[in-house]
């Protein structure tokens, strides 16, 4: 297998860390996150590269992707695993939290996918996997803002997938249910189902999609995994 270059947003913990771990064995992996200490720790643990980047800042995203290509060449795939949790009744959320959740989950997703697609269009190939959430399909009380911001990402990805018109650039998404991750710890036990998938199980599916070649079955636009743990 020829090594390829992958960027994993949110690769410092949870699902993103497991995706990066699986890829790092055979490929060039660059994890990105907005906390320097976490990026450094994950980079040392996995033996891969890492760059500090706030995806809600267009200049940082452009500079980060440019740096990846300078170091390793064209980007073969992006796993967008990062998200900001914003739980609680809308009227109880501080305006600062509302703004930041939208900056990360909406603006950040838009900027990261835009800049990645520009590069993939120029090179003529590449795979993008967006980690959505089962919550976008099944409303749950107590998470109106989180669900709304993740629903934006799902809508964006589905529209982008339809717009590609080529098997060489695939835009895909998965809809996992609750998992034992750092985000889940912030959510609390009330939102953890009695049956659930493990991060490493979902990571294997993300990696499978990232490794699809231009000649593989056209799956862009399909919700390839709508998982609540009941595989």
UniProtKB/TrEMBL annotation:
Record has Acetylation as a keyword: no
Uppermost EC category: oxidoreductase
Record keywords: Oxidoreductase
Enzyme Commission code: 1.-.-.-
Pfam families associated with the record: adh_short (PF00106)
InterPro entries tied to this protein: KR_dom (IPR057326), NAD(P)-bd_dom_sf (IPR036291), SDR_fam (IPR002347)
Single GO term (MF): oxidoreductase activity
Entry superkingdom: Bacteria
SUPFAM superfamilies per UniProt: NAD(P)-binding Rossmann-fold domains
Domain Ketoreductase: 4-175
Family designation: Belongs to the short-chain dehydrogenases/reductases (SDR) family.
Name by which UniProt lists this protein: SDR family oxidoreductase
Native species: Plantactinospora sonchi
Top-level taxonomy: Bacteria, Bacillati, Actinomycetota, Actinomycetes, Micromonosporales
């Amino acid at each position: 297998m020829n090594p390829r270059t992958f960027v994993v947003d949110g690769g410092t913990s949870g699902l993103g860390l497991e995706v990066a771990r699986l890829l790092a064995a055979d490929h060039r992996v660059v994890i990105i996150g907005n906390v320097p200490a976490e990026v450094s720790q994950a980079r040392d643990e996995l033996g891969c590269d890492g760059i500090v980047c706030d995806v809600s800042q267009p200049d940082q995203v452009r500079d980060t992707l440019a740096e990846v290509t300078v170091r390793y060449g064209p980007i073969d795939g992006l796993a967008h695993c990062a998200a900001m949790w914003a739980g609680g009744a809308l009227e109880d959320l501080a305006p600062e939290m509302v703004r930041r959740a939208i900056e990360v989950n909406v603006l950040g997703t838009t900027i990261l996918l835009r800049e990645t697609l520009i590069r993939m269009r120029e090179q003529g190939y590449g795979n993008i996997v967006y980690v959505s959430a089962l919550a976008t399909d099944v409303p749950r009380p107590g998470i109106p803002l989180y669900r709304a911001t993740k629903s934006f990402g799902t809508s964006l990805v589905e529209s982008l997938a339809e717009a590609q018109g080529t098997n060489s650039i695939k835009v895909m998404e998965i809809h996992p249910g609750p998992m034992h991750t750092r985000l889940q710890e912030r959510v609390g036990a009330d939102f953890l189902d009695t049956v659930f998938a493990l991060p490493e199980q979902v990571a294997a599916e993300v990696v499978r999609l990232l490794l699809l070649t231009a000649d593989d079955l056209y799956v862009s636009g399909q919700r390839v995994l709508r998982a609540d743990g009941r595989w």
